[in-house]
Amino acid sequence: MMNIKKSTHSEWSSRLAFILAATGSAVGLGNIWKFPYITGENGGGAFVFVYLLCVLLIGIPIMIAEVMLGRRGHRNPIETMELLTEEAGADKNWHYLGWMGVIAGLLILSYYSVIAGWASAYVVKAFTGSFFDANAVAIKTVFDDFVASPVRLIFWHSIFMLATMMIVVRGVNNGLEKAVQYLMPSLFVLMFLLVAYAMKMDSYYQGLHFLLFPDFSKLTGSSILTAMGHAFFTLSLGMGAIMVYGSYLPKNISIAKTALLIAGADTLVALMAGIVIFPIVFSNNLHPDSGPGLIFQTLPIAFGSMTGGWLMGILFFVMLVIAALTSSISLIEPAVAWLVENRGFSRVKACVWSGSLTWLLGLGTVFSFNVWSNVKLFDRTIFQLLDYLTANLMLPIGGFCIAVFAGWIMKRQHSEQELNMATELDYIRWKVLISYVAPCAVFFVFLHVIGIF
Questions:
Q1: Of 81, 164, 100, 97, nearest to 330 (Cα)?
Q2: Is 243:100 a contact under the CB 8 Å cutoff?
Q3: 136 or 361, higher pLDDT
Q4: How far apart are CA 336 and CA 329, in angstroms?
Q5: CATH: 3.40.50, 1.10.10, 1.20.1740, 3.30.450. Which one for 15-449?
Q6: What is the mean pLDDT of residues 312-329?
Q7: CA 187/CA 275 separation, integer angstroms
Q8: pLDDT at residue 1 above 60?
Q9: Residue 4 has what pLDDT?
């Protein structure tokens, strides 16, 4: 067995700290912004059923594998894959999997920060009553004027990146851990308040029926593949975040049980977001299939006309910012950990370098909505290209490679040792899922997103 050298690598102080941090990484704009609108576009309950099935059969096995690799290497993703490749006696090219995860995380954060900046700005807009009695035309004008201003977008992008860096610079225990200890409970409190409000609406049961009662006649092959892809992406897999968080996990904590809790909490947030949003949509005669504009161009109409909408609007966008922040700190952490452990940077210097590079890359996304809106590469704006490159190419490839490495390359004795499952049958079930089911499913998703299947 390879002798993994000791390091100054930190550890979470408790299992709860890791669960909160990893759940925060998984819970983000994808749960509250993307999940409701793709559910609306794909017929509701039947889509949700397939999504839940995919989380169980694809997402959780890969999450277990990624946490396991992180804890086994006890390093940043780049060094972890170098060490584990050597331990398995595998081709040295496998270590590029770590590099791809770190790079994907920074690229995602570069545009994620810009969108999170929109949510931050909308907290202020909701607070100042910008949505009060506004119709669809007025709300669209507010949104269009906002994104047309590079100065405003840069300001909010900068504020969000600065907040992210201020948390990460304090380290694992004093920064990441303390932040999620406050942010995640706050997120759930806000979510429960909004659910309680939605339950009082006349259209609550209509929204609940749309979300939870499947009509399989509305399900298409494209819907199934979309659900499969979202189940994978929503758990923050393949971008180095879960791997680096796993590297901080003490040896005495069960990976499988913890991954189940994280996936369960992440799925709960997505379902609660749907429970909040669809009653609002139906009670205001809006359309559930409004697409990406559902949050920024549709819900403000409802908040501006409903009783208590001013407060609900503020709470909703605050919740959106919190969700974005818990994900952003996990996206930058792999790069920061690598600079500290491999280049001898202080954590402050590593955060400044990583954050500044990410902020600079984010300007491409900012300008994609205004001064560079006509600048296109491969028929896509810079924002669209970054989104396609990461979500549709890098993450599926990363997830596929994690499944193959854990299922076929890593020695059985090592994965058994790390997972330490309760029974041999539990390990066999995971081994089948990670070796056959998950990689095949991710492969088909990949073929779909690049237009082959």
A1: 164
A2: no
A3: 361
A4: 10
A5: 1.20.1740
A6: 90
A7: 15
A8: no
A9: 44
